[in-house]
């Protein structure tokens, strides 16, 4: 087998509705235009700055104008890339920043080191050239003379992003892409309608997300909504103590009951990658009078809550299939048939199932009840 570091993938992959562009591509024409224009403007800006004097303030004016054009181009470059990556402004940790979803479903901070430093350099250059022009306009010698270093930086950026460096970067990113595609091997895709797909994934639901603002995971909770064992406890642990506080504030409909069996409540996701958590309570098999109706209600109310809160992507566990003891095959059939009722209300419905035996049951039942996506493989 070939070493992953040496593999270059030259195709585009479509998994469900998500389009994955492989890193092995040339820099797009707009990116090259902005890069070259930035580089070309840096040179005369520095030259005009050196030529400027008390008797020639017009050169300082030209240097200042070019610096502002460079700043505008840097901002346009970042906006262009941000729109392509569909970045979202989020508060994660101590500092708010822009984030986007990498194909491996990791939330990545937006902007490379060279792009951020380039923007900072452009801002400082605008400040220094403006101050310099202000001094010369008043016929006072400019005490600030630091505008040669942006040219050095421009050469560095051109080298870093130039074509001779791209193969190395492509190889490294291709390794990450190969790992991403391997992770997707445990996903089966089924169309629910022309605009909605069902995805059955094997994995950890606490790590699932799509875009970080219109996605939600479903927590198979207990009636108190204050955490418990299994996936419930894992979700509370991953979301942090803020989730407990939010659940505690949910009004009790009767003493000790915030969410009755079959109903659903929604909270923010806090430290989870998904933006929201929908809490629902499934039936305890053998104790519930009509467990099938209660389980159907749990799924239906979760989907209604998602629709009413503009959630476009939702991930379910196997509700009631843990310590509540619901038979897996019957639970899978109920869940999939209920989801079909909401086939036009969301973009993607996921089942994220941790255990192999449950994943296999859901996959088998989906094949019985739904037609697989044409490009979906049996995994």
From TrEMBL:
This is Macro domain-containing protein. Residues 185-370 form the Macro domain. It comes from Jatropha curcas. It comes from the Eukaryota. SUPFAM superfamilies: Macro domain-like (SSF52949). The keyword Transmembrane applies. Pfam families: Macro. The chain crosses the membrane at residues 59-80, 116-136, 142-160. The keyword Transmembrane helix applies. Keywords: Membrane, Transmembrane, Transmembrane helix. The lineage of its organism: Eukaryota, Viridiplantae, Streptophyta, Embryophyta, Tracheophyta. InterPro entries: Macro_dom, Macro_dom-like.
């Amino acid at each position: 087998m070939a070493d992953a570091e040496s593999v270059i993938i030259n195709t585009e992959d479509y998994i469900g509705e998500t389009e994955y562009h492989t890193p092995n591509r040339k820099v797009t024409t707009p990116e090259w235009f902005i890069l070259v224009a930035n580089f070309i403007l840096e040179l005369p800006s520095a030259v005009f700055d050196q030529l400027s004097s008390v008797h020639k303030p017009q050169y300082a004016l030209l240097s200042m104008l070019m610096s502002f054009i460079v700043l505008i181009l840097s901002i346009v470059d970042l906006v262009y890339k941000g729109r392509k990556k569909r970045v979202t402004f989020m508060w994660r940790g101590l500092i708010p920043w822009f984030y986007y979803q990498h194909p491996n479903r990791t939330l990545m901070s937006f902007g490379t080191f060279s792009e951020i430093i380039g923007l900072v350099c452009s801002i400082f250059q605008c400040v220094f050239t403006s101050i310099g022009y202000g001094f010369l306009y008043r016929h006072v010698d400019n005490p600030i003379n630091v505008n040669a270093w942006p040219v050095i930086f421009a050469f560095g950026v051109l080298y870093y992003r130039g074509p001779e460096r791209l193969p190395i970067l492509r190889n490294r990113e291709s390794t990450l892409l190969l790992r991403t595609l391997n992770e997707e091997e445990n996903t089966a895709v089924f169309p629910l309608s022309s605009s909605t797909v069902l995805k059955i994934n094997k994995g950890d639901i606490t790590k699932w997300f799509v875009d970080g603002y219109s996605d939600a995971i479903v927590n198979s909770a207990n009636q108190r909504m204050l955490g418990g064992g299994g996936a419930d406890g894992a979700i509370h642990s991953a979301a942090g103590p803020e989730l407990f506080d939010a659940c505690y504030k949910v009004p009790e409909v009767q003493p000790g009951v915030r969410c009755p069996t079959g109903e659903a409540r929604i909270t923010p996701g806090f430290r989870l990658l998904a933006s929201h958590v929908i809490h629902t309570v499934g039936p305890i098999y053998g104790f519930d009078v009509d467990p099938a109706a209660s389980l159907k209600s749990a799924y239906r109310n979760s989907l209604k809550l998602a629709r009413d809160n503009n959630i476009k992507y939702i991930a379910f566990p196997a509700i009631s299939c843990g310590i509540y003891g619901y038979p897996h095959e019957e639970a899978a059939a109920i869940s999939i048939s209920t989801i079909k009722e909401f086939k036009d209300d969301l973009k993607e419905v996921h089942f994220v199932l941790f255990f192999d035996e449950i994943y296999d049951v859901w996959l088998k039942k989906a094949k019985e009840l739904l037609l697989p996506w044409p490009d979906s493989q049996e995994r």
